[in-house]
Amino acid sequence: MYQTKIAGLGKYVPENVVTNDDLSKMMDTNDEWITERTGIKERRHIKKGDGNTTATMGVKAARIALERSGINKDEIDLIVFATLSPDYYFPGCGVQVQEMLDIKTCPALDVRNQCSGFIYAISVADQFIKTGMYKNILVIGSENHSGGLDFTTRGRSVSVIFGDGAGAAVLTRSDHNGQGILSTHLHSEGKHALELSLKGPSTNYWVPEIIADNPQGDDIPYYPYMNGQFVFKNAVQRFSEVINEGLEANGLEVSDIDMLIPHQANLRISQFIQQKFRLKDEQVYNNIQRYGNTTAASIPIALTEAWEEGKIDNEDVVVLAAFGSGFTWGSAIIKW
Length: 336
Ligand code: UT7
Fold this sequence. Notes:
It holds the Pfam family ACP_syn_III_C. It is found in: Cytoplasm. The chain is of the alpha/beta class. The protein folds into two domains: 3-174, Thiolase/Chalcone synthase (Peroxisomal Thiolase, Chain A, domain 1, 3-Layer(aba) Sandwich); 180-335, Thiolase/Chalcone synthase (Peroxisomal Thiolase, Chain A, domain 1), CATH 3.40.47. Helices cover 32% and strands 22% of the residues. β12 and β13 form a beta hairpin. The longest helix has 22 residues, at 228-249. Residues 29, 33-34, 37-38, 115, 156-157, 160, 228-229, 231-232, 235, 265-266, 269, 293, 324 line the site of oxa(dethia)-CoA.
């Protein structure tokens, strides 16, 4: 069995900064509420005409990750793209990346696991590398949330949280045993599928039916719905479980964690986990204050920034953990 390591990381966020005060001009909200409940101060939104889409942002992050990895694009054996906000209903963004990066005819796989998307994506990539089937895999998490949110007061409990951006990692076969991804742990619980969801348009709920059901346009299924407190309670429980699961599988203790990078769902969730595991501030990386919740992009953006800021050293134990719509959750334990 081979082992997988991260050879290069990259991130891209749109230039357009949207502060809490900016949002309060569009809907009945305010900086105090958003900061207190979520920790978010600002997020990035794609601006019409700036050329950004889920796929193009993913490509921008990928180019940086590829350059840092020293691996040529033509050596990429597989693209795995995680998003809940693809450019098209079909095909997925993976094939767009293959075309935009001009990579031969490598396979491209799209992963639809929302906030856990990046963990699911690196887990898939890890299995292909471990078995020896592929050597170099480009993994991307990218989201264009702002294109599909309700920026009226009706949508405020969801729309203030989410932001746009992309992160990427080039995964490759590790030369040193014991270095790289030690394990990944994935879960789902579909009975809660609709607690954080966007129901239509879908093949099960197509446009004419939506219009017929909502003559006044008051119950709109094409904006995301979130049962916030229920999601919050499940998140703190599942984050803890899946971090413990990863540590136990590798014979590690909480004190062995050098850096925990939680999916940036809500600063209060990250702080709850930090307190529960008694981790110091320098052992947990958060940037939700600047980007909001970027779903599948949040972990690769945070991981890239933590690495860029010199907060991850060789031999460090890095723990990634996520929870989100599905419900789905997962963790990855990495020896850097
Ligand atoms: O990434 C995927 C996983 N996602 C998560 O883990 C998110 C989990 N949930 C959360 O982060 C929180 O539940 C939220 C941040 C979404 C909401 O915070 P909350 O403390 O659960 O607030 P709430 O939904 O209970 O709303 C409290 C009040 C309500 O008013 P009333 O009924 O008490 O009068 C809301 O209408 O706050 C009101 N409210 C707002 N007020 C100002 C909701 N959104 C806003 C807003 N600005 N943006």
